[in-house]
Design a protein that fits this description.
globular
Length: about 80
């Protein structure tokens, strides 16, 4: 499974668990329009760390937080390649 699929599957799970509608999710979808609020984004990062064993935010060296799902997937891919 690629990182983008893992991210979108986890978003769908979070939204389904609280009975919220799941929007169409594409690489260009902004995280703000993914259906997640700020607490959900934190939960997403935690769930992805548990699932993938990767936390690209742990070193705090990001120039900026990813804005789209595709950018988030790329961030996870980069950290996966390092580890």
């Amino acid at each position: 499974m690629n990182m983008y699929d893992a991210i979108t599957e986890t978003i769908r799970t979070i939204l389904t668990e609280r009975n919220d509608p799941v929007p169409d999710l594409e690489p260009g979808t902004s995280i703000a329009n993914s259906g997640l609020d700020s607490l959900d984004v934190a939960a997403l990062v935690v769930r992805l760390e548990q699932r993938l064993g990767i936390d690209p935010f742990q070193d705090g060296a990001l120039a900026r937080f990813p804005r789209t799902l595709g950018e988030l997937a790329n961030l996870y891919e980069q950290h996966n390649q390092r580890g």
